[in-house]
Design the sequence.
């Protein structure tokens, strides 16, 4: 003790903290800040509507991508794919952009990966304290607004430029998603629908690919597209290899689909005017449908070159097939089957055998000639040939002249042998003439001829060609406005047979649409748009066979190119796009891409659909069923879309 009286003791809080009065200077500074907040400059009303501001660029910044920072309160205003307008204040330029990454939440003051931030989050149960945070988003500049038009940007928005959210009406206009045909809702918006104008020549006639793994929603997309196209008066033809769409005239009864339709404010509804077509001798998965038609194919309508490719003939077999085909043409004229008139003789000159076959020729005609070749190479046939070879050239030539039966030398005009060769067609009435044509274009290699005969016999046993009581496909009726024609191939159990049917019907549809287009033009009228959907397209045009099928591909390419001008659009549907050749993918302008899990397939598709940015491709492997990356020529940019549920009944087949 020093003898002095103790001074006053500062009062203490219960926790032991010493309470000291706030210094007068500090109180005065706080009062001044408070007064400035009330009386200082007010926020610019225009800036009050901003959802964020552009950030400074860093060394990792990319061309056409801008970072936008936004407050915690405005974070909910931006969503993926939303459109924004950036007003660059320093140079008075305006840009339109779309959110391609984020928005992400980041803590203020410290990095998100700092020890302090991680500690605060992981100890959230124990700590009342946390950081305030802000939002960050990446936007892609769509273009610069110049006098009401959107032009490619030459500059970048300056830092600290305000960013404004476009409303849905303006966003829809900028994105080009208007039209009568709705595909679904654009992801990132409450009510914006992805729509198409089916009467715009730059859309549906520019062919479409519907791609994705099994279970991703392709079939639902196809069923929805069928319903929308029919409602718009489009003639729709579906090559249905599984029979999934044979009941689309009935409303869906699938519980999940009914619930999804209810959420969209839609109702189940079947399409009108459904017609089902199936091969003769094959069944349909809707056998009691009132508009069910069986049909056979005409051998004469198939290109011999395409037929050789589809049947996978070897080079030797194809050479002999084409030789037999040429001899058959000569015999058809010899036997006065075709051509018969001068007009038909002129028509023969216009036959393009890369696109179609020879009129009135049947598979039995060709088989008769092939059998004659095989017979000529047999021991009995060789003996017959040696006997003929002793005849004079004048007598041999007489076999090839019209009405030469009476004039021909009895030693030369051979009768049909009692064994070894049985002809099925009109050719059997003059075996000698058939053999004379065969000998005039002689051939060797009996084994190749027998292999060819085996393939043609298997094709004939299918019973699909030139069936007497069966009609061919009525292409004109298929092109009726608003009609849905399903080609039910579910009972064929043969990709080769399916390819024969698809190739033949595609050619017939193209020719019929050509005629309709010319008639409409002559009357200054519009022609009915046609949509042709090919399921399992990778089976029809396989990448590992495209080198062996150049004629078939050229047929499809011709239909695709000419179809654009004649309102005929093709839709290729596949879960194996890696099996489609680049030549086919090159025909596709529009894409509906559902979930693809294989990164190598995504990488290949990126090269094909170059207009789709990487940020969207990164989401393809994680898409939910029914969601799709949609790129149509009328859209300003590709969009993520929740495709509408199908209101029609679709068979769930394995």
Sequence:
């Amino acid at each position: 003790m020093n003898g002095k009286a103790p001074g006053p003791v500062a009062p203490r809080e219960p926790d032991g903290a010493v309470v000291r009065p706030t210094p007068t200077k500090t109180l005065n500074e706080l009062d001044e800040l408070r007064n400035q907040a009330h009386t200082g400059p007010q926020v610019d009303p225009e800036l009050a509507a901003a959802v964020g501001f552009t950030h400074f660029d860093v060394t990792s910044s990319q061309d056409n991508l801008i970072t936008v920072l936004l407050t915690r309160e405005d974070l909910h205003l931006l969503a993926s794919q939303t459109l924004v307008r950036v007003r660059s204040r320093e140079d008075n330029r305006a840009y339109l952009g779309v959110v391609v990454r984020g928005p992400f939440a980041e803590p203020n003051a410290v990095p998100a990966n700092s020890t302090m931030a991680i500690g605060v989050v992981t100890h959230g149960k124990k700590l009342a304290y946390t950081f305030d945070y802000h939002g960050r988003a990446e936007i892609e500049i769509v273009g610069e607004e110049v006098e009401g038009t959107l032009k490619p940007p030459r500059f970048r928005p300056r830092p600290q430029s305000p960013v404004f959210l476009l409303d849905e009406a303006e966003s829809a206009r900028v994105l080009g998603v208007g039209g009568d045909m709705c595909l679904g809702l654009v992801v990132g918006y409450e009510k914006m629908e992805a729509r198409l104008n089916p009467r715009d020549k730059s859309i549906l006639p520019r062919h479409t690919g519907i791609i994705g793994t099994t279970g991703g929603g392709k079939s639902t997309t196809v069923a929805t597209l069928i319903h929308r196209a029919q409602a718009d008066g489009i003639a729709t033809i579906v090559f249905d290899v599984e029979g999934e769409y044979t009941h689309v005239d009935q409303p869906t009864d699938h519980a999940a689909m009914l619930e999804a339709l209810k959420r969209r404010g839609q109702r189940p509804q079947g399409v009108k005017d459904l017609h089902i077509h199936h091969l003769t001798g094959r069944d349909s998965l809707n056998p009691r449908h009132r508009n069910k038609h069986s049909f056979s194919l005409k051998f004469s309508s198939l290109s011999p070159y395409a037929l050789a490719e589809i049947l996978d003939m070897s080079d030797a077999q194809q050479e002999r097939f084409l030789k037999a085909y040429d001899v058959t043409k000569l015999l058809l004229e010899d036997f006065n089957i075709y051509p018969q008139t001068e007009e038909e003789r002129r028509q023969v000159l216009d036959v393009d055998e890369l696109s179609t076959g020879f009129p009135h020729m049947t598979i039995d005609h060709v088989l008769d000639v092939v059998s004659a070749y095989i017979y000529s190479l047999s021991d009995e046939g060789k003996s017959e040939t040696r006997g003929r070879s002793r005849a004079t050239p004048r007598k041999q030539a007489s076999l090839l002249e019209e009405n030469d039966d009476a004039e021909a030398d009895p030693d030369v005009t051979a009768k049909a042998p009692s064994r070894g060769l049985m002809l099925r067609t009109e050719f059997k009435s003059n075996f000698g003439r058939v053999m004379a044509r065969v000998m005039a274009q002689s051939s060797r290699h009996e084994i190749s001829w027998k292999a060819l005969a085996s393939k043609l016999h298997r094709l004939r046993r299918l019973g699909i060609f030139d069936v007497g009581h069966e009609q061919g496909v009525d292409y004109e009726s298929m092109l009726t406005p608003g009609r849905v024609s399903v080609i039910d191939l579910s009972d064929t159990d043969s990709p080769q047979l399916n390819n024969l049917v698809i190739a033949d019907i595609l050619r017939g549809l193209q020719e019929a649409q050509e005629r309709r287009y010319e008639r409409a033009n002559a009357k200054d009228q519009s022609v009915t748009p046609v949509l042709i959907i090919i399921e399992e397209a990778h089976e029809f045009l396989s990448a590992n066979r495209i080198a062996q099928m150049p004629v078939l591909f050229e047929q499809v390419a011709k239909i695709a190119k000419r179809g654009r001008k004649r309102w005929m659009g093709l839709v290729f549907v596949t879960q194996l796009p890696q099996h489609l050749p680049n030549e086919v993918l090159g025909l596709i302008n529009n894409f509906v891409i559902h979930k693809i899990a294989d990164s190598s397939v995504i990488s290949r598709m990126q090269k094909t659909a170059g207009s789709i940015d990487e940020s969207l491709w990164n989401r393809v492997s994680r898409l939910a069923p029914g969601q799709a990356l949609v790129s149509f020529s009328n859209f300003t940019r590709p969009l993520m879309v929740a495709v509408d549920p199908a209101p029609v009944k679709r068979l769930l087949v394995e």
User: Anything to note?
Assistant: The chain has three domains: 47-175, 205-295+471-643, 301-385+412-462. Residues 301-385+412-462 form one domain.
